[in-house]
Amino acid sequence: MARILIADDDAGVREGLAEAVADLGHEVVAAADGEAALAAAGPGIAAVLLDLRMPGALDGLEVLRRLRARRGAPPVAILTAYASASNTIEAMRLGAFDHLTKPVGRADIAELLGRMLRPDAPPPQDAAAAEDAEALVGVSAAMRAVQKTIGRVADGDATVLVTGETGTGKEVVARALHRFGRRAAGPFVALNCAAIPPDLLEAELFGHARGAFTGALAERRGAFREAHGGTLFLDEVGDMDLAMQAKILRAVQEREVTPLGGRPVRVDVRIVAATHRDLPARVREGAFREDLYYRLAVVPVHLPPLRERPADLVPLAEHFLARLPGRRQLAADAASRLLAHPWPGNARELRNAMERAAALGQGAVIGAADLDFLGAIAPPAGTEDWLAGDLPTAIARLERAMLLRALRETGGNRAEAARRLGIHRQLLYAKLRQFGLDALSAERTEAVRTEDAAPAGAAS
Fold first, then answer.
1. For the packed helices 391-409 and 414-421, what is the interaxial angle rounded to 10 degrees?
2. What does pTM read for this prediction?
3. Is the per-residue pLDDT at 194 higher than 60?
4. Relative to the CA of 123, which of 212, 221, 284, 334 has its CA 20 to 30 Å away?
């Protein structure tokens, strides 16, 4: 016997489904709306039969989205009398086990539950988990630092502030903090503070009691209570107005929220905030509360833009390609083309570019010609030869340029140059000999400073 959650606002349909499920020997848990379904879908629920259209703010797709964001979520089947191509595709994209059109007969219910409860049945794809490591792919020092920070703080409760340009993967970091931490079994609730009008944001965050205002026909739990026991991701906190910042400060500080028209409620949540704004600058301008900034930035994590970590470009592009249907590879000239683009949209733009190249490309190998939509290459003066030749030559050219820059910036101090480059002094000495730079010393600092920093051909 298994516990089956049935969520449908139509009492007649709900009772009919409950009778069919009970006749199959299972225990039934019933819910009349989306909020009740989320509250009931706790440990012990083996499967969920979910109506698509339900009253209130949470329809079937939103309930499905939130359930699938939970680790170890049960399989969910959508049942609707209003099936369409768009809602079928969207439901399956969000991880629905199946999508059936009402009316559903007893034989259909038996067959559906048989598949959903089969021990060896493959679980629906967890879209959130599949994205977790997306923007964390990288070998650059900056991304290694981000990865290490996540590993150190994932099991704690300290509030994390993730900063970075749009498209760098701030929500991916938040999901990784949740998935790799001790709260992984709890809910992950994401809320974009910039996408909700200020007059509605308070109810979205803290909820409201039934009858709190005109139109409040049912209680609303709010994001803080929805995330109880898990993680609350507050995206674009830098765009909140000052009045809301004061209310958020109390919730972050006290872990207590007061629903509109209700009483204070304690919440147990791990808060991860994110913004593309320069919050210290906004504090100086008076647009962001200083006390809230320090409450959010207990553990700061900065995601540098993609243009500042070129070493991650090709691995990240290959990662995106690997997740697409078919087996496609990047040609050497395509990799060079990627390195020449500034990527103002960061990882999000790169992912879109890989999807477009894969969709329009004719073969299994993506070449530079498949990336012509990126626009003309306009390299800065003196960098025309950066991408010439084969890959070993290009890497050697880059190494030599970095060695020269480190020596210039440190006044010829080799120990300090090695530290800045993140390598041992012995390796630095070996590289200097390899590129014919071993004669450089502190006495020749001026010569190093005046040497052309543009990459030259690698020594043979």
1. 130
2. 0.57
3. yes
4. 221
